[in-house]
Amino acid sequence: MNAGKRAFDITLALALLVPGLPLMALLWCLVALKDGLPAFYTSERMRAPGRPFRLYKIRTMSIARGGPERGVSGGDKAGRITPLGRTLRRFRFDELPQLFNVLKGDMSFVGPRPPMRQYVEQFPELYGEVLKSRPGITGLATIMHHSHEEKLLKNSRSAEETEEIYVKRCVPRKAAIDLLYSRRQSFCFDLYILYLTMGKLMSLPGARLQRLRAKAARV
């Protein structure tokens, strides 16, 4: 990561923490009152092969029984998402604590979503290339593939089915888009991805996604 991108991340994270800290405190209280403690959720993610970190989120699911979470969320876990958690996920408020991951240097605002250790160990060469870019809160693959991934996984009825779909149909596609981002990364492109991310949460004027979809289709 170059110094300019890092300086932008720190500046934006500090600016967003001004309204973000009171909002996180409010959401912590809401989750604690409605769904119990803990209200925050941490999960191991990989910054690079052999470099794990703790990802911070506001908890949106009931606590798993029988051990820690493993694997991505599919239809087999949908019943555990709380009503409040669905709202938090819709507006991505559950990801507000990742501002602290950005300040710590574990993540950037824009980059590939940080994968779990099991996938990095399963595909070391692939993620060795993808994670040359620092993981991000949002990214090109988030914009281009996230909705499609949710559709692919929502009807899975077991952890094994979710895993098979994710490994065969999501990992290669997301990695290809992340590598496209790494080849074309620039400050202006990052700003555009941030703008498109905001456009998924609210109505914003400006360019649509056709050009990005066309680029991704050529990967």
Give a verbal description of the structure.
With 219 residues, the chain is mainly α. The protein has 9 helices and 4 strands. It has helices at residues 3-35, 83-90, 98-104, 117-122, 124-130, 140-153, 159-184, 187-201, 210-217, and strands at residues 40-48, 51-58, 108-110, 136-138. The strands form 2 sheets. Strands 1-2 form a two-stranded antiparallel sheet. A two-stranded parallel sheet has the order 3-4. Strand 1 (40-48) and strand 2 form a beta hairpin. The protein is globular and about 40 Å long.
Number of helices: 9
Alpha-beta classification: mainly alpha
Approximately how much beta-strand content do the residues carry?
5-15%
Assembly type: single chain
Largest sheet: 2 strands, antiparallel
Average residue pLDDT: 90
**Overall form:** globular
User: How many DSSP E strands?
Assistant: 4
Q: Main sheet: which strands, in order across?
A: 1-2
